[in-house]
Amino acid sequence: MKLNQKKIILVSNITDHSGPTEGLADFLLKNSKTLLTIYHPFFYCHDKKSKVNFFSKSELIKKIASPSLALPEFLKYFTDLILTFYYALKFKQKFDLYIGVNCLHAGVGIIFKKLGLVKKVVFYTIDWMPQRFNNPFFNWLYYKVDKFSINHSDSVWNLSQSIVKIRKKQNLPSSKNIFVPNGINFKEIKKVKKNKIKRKTLVLLGALHPSKGVDLVIKALPLLWKKFPQLKLVVIGSTPKIKQIKNYEKIFSSMGRKVIIKGILPHQKILSFLPQFGIALAPYHPQKNNFSYYAWPARVIDYLACQLPVIITPVPQVAKNIQEKKAGVLIKYNEKELVKAVGKLLTNDQFYWQARKNAFKLVKHLSWNNIFEKALEKIYN
User: Which stretches make up the Glycosyl transferase family domain (predicted)?
Assistant: First the structure.
C-alpha cells in the first residue's frame, strides 16, 4: 500500500474534545501525498466555525474558516453538507480516497465518486444509536441516508464491535464491515514515577453531559469527602452548548477548592499530565438512547493508556473488558457503589497497582498507526 502517493479528503463533524477524527487526520498527514480536511463543529460546540486545511506532503498550503454559524441541529447538518460541496470543489482536485465520518458526509463522498471526483469512499461510523433525532421524519431521513451510505461505500469502518454487529444485521458483507476502534498516540503520553502519582485525586475527562454520568459524580462527592477528606477531583472538559443541560462548571465551582476545573484543553496537553492522577471516572448513565452503548469511548482509551484504573458503568462495550482484565471497577449507576469503588482503589494497594498495569495492557495494541494501517490495507491490498 503506497499511501504516500494518494490524495485524500477527510470530512467530519467534530466536538470540543479530541477523538478518532483527529487521530485519523494526524495519521493521514504523515502518510499521504495530499490531504484536505473539512471539519464541521456540532451545533452544541463552543467554536461554531467550519475549518478547512489543505496539505501537500505534510505542509499546510491553505487554511480556511467559515463564518461562525449558530444554527439549530438539523439546519446545521444541512449547512455542513453545502459547505462540504463548496470547499471540496473549490480546490479543483481529484482524490484517490474520500473518508466521511458519519453517513451524511459519506453520502457526499458517494456523490463525488459518481461525478468522478474521488475513486474510493470510506464511511467511518464513530457513533450510532437507535434514535438519532426526536423528530420522526428527521430520524427516518437520517437512517435512509445511513442505509444508502453503507450500500454504496467501498468500505464501512465501525468504532465498536456493537456497530459491526448492527452492520451485519443490515446485510453488509464482512469484507466491507471493518472494526476500527478508538486509539491513541502513545508518544504523547508523559510517564510519571510511582511516587509522583496523586492517588487521592480523581479525574473526570470529556464533555460534561448527563449521559456521561456527571450528575452521579456530583451526588457522590459529599459522601466521598466524608470518608476521604483529602480527596480531590480534577475536571477536564466543558458543558455542551445545549439549552436543556445545566451548567456543570458552575455546579462544580460551587463545591469548593477540592474540585479543580481545567476546562477544554488540547489533547496532547491532557496526555502530558493525565498519568499523574489516581483514579479515572467513567460512570455513563444507562439511559435508553445513550450512544455510548455502541461506542468505544476515546476518554476511556485515554485513561487506560495513561495507566489509570477506571470506575465505569456497564454501558460501553469496553466496560466488560475492564472488569475481566481487572483494570478498574465495574459499578451500577449508584452513588453508593461509586463511593465503594473509590474506597477499594484507595485502600487495597495490591489491587490498585495491578489495575494500573492491567489498564495499559488492555490498550497497548491500540496505536493509531496500527489501527489505520490495518484498515487501509483492506482497501488497497
Answer: 187-361
